[in-house]
Amino acid sequence: MSAPTTTAPLAAGRRRPRLRRGALTMMALIAPSILLLVLINAYPLFVAALQSVRDGSLIADGSFIGLQNYADALSSPRFWKSAGVTLVFTLLGVFGSWAIGLALALLLRLRTPGRSVFRVLLLLPWVVPVVVSSTSWNFLVGTPDSLAPTLARLLGLGEVYFLADPFMAAVTVCVFKVWISFPFMLLMCSSALSSVDTTVYEAAGMDGASRWQQFSQITLPLISRSTYISWILMAIFCVNDFPTIYLLTGGGPVDSTTSLVVLAYRTVFQDMRTGPGVAIAFLMTLVLVVVSTVLYRQIRKADVA
């Protein structure tokens, strides 16, 4: 009876050094990649942090001024106007593209002819480069003789200046963002819906649940984890989206479509003020970290549920 009790600790003792050697080997193999990633990401971040506390330019470091750039940004009306534009642009971009993507994902679950072709066509706005898409939209709405203003006149709406009027320019930019982003949400929602067991809907239908009850009490809770992940990713995409706005409107007219990332670009590369521009970028990053943390907590709650 004593033999098993003595051999078991010996076998466990042999396995532990092997596991430790295997872990050390794996760490040694991945260490160069981790070091390279740290250097690639940490060095620019460190340099940017130094620039944000100086009053330098693209050609000079400038003197140390502490947190003055952050204070100036937070006290600037232009910063808060751009923050409002970014907030509206992000909310409409996230929830507008999610609503359309979810609706199309539910529609594509139906057994209809040509469903595969339709799915591929729906991905085109996301696949086409944003430079091509923005150029096409400029031809569509850019001048009074373009297709959209012409249709507006034919419908009796008068002269509609989609890119010259501040309000219409903001609406056009948001619609354009939703148009190029809903395919991403379509893929996320489709993958989430494919993991839902259809027998749940059959049981709910037998219990008398309506279509809306099945959607609100079964579908949305079951895909909530994927939904929060897609919201985090799309919020990051929207806040950091420079080409969508700049290629379509350039941030105008009268700063009506100037988001924080466009404002940071103008401050650094047009006004030649590196410190304030980088400070704006760091404030954007701080907001994204807070939003991502809140949504990540919702993901953990969904996992627990």
From TrEMBL:
<keyword id="KW-0813">Transport</keyword>
<feature type="transmembrane region" description="Helical">
    <location>
        <begin position="160"/>
        <end position="180"/>
    </location>
</feature>
<dbReference type="GO" id="GO:0005886">
    <property type="term" value="C:plasma membrane"/>
</dbReference>
<protein>
    <submittedName>
        <fullName>Sugar ABC transporter permease</fullName>
    </submittedName>
</protein>
<dbReference type="Pfam" id="PF00528">
    <property type="entry name" value="BPD_transp_1"/>
</dbReference>
<dbReference type="InterPro" id="IPR035906">
    <property type="entry name" value="MetI-like_sf"/>
</dbReference>
<feature type="domain" description="ABC transmembrane type-1">
    <location>
        <begin position="83"/>
        <end position="295"/>
    </location>
</feature>
<dbReference type="GO" id="GO:0055085">
    <property type="term" value="P:transmembrane transport"/>
</dbReference>
<keyword id="KW-1133">Transmembrane helix</keyword>
<feature type="transmembrane region" description="Helical">
    <location>
        <begin position="24"/>
        <end position="46"/>
    </location>
</feature>
<feature type="transmembrane region" description="Helical">
    <location>
        <begin position="83"/>
        <end position="108"/>
    </location>
</feature>
<keyword id="KW-0812">Transmembrane</keyword>
<feature type="transmembrane region" description="Helical">
    <location>
        <begin position="277"/>
        <end position="296"/>
    </location>
</feature>
<keyword id="KW-0472">Membrane</keyword>
<dbReference type="InterPro" id="IPR000515">
    <property type="entry name" value="MetI-like"/>
</dbReference>
<comment type="similarity">
    <text>Belongs to the binding-protein-dependent transport system permease family.</text>
</comment>
<feature type="transmembrane region" description="Helical">
    <location>
        <begin position="120"/>
        <end position="140"/>
    </location>
</feature>
<keyword id="KW-1003">Cell membrane</keyword>
<feature type="transmembrane region" description="Helical">
    <location>
        <begin position="228"/>
        <end position="248"/>
    </location>
</feature>
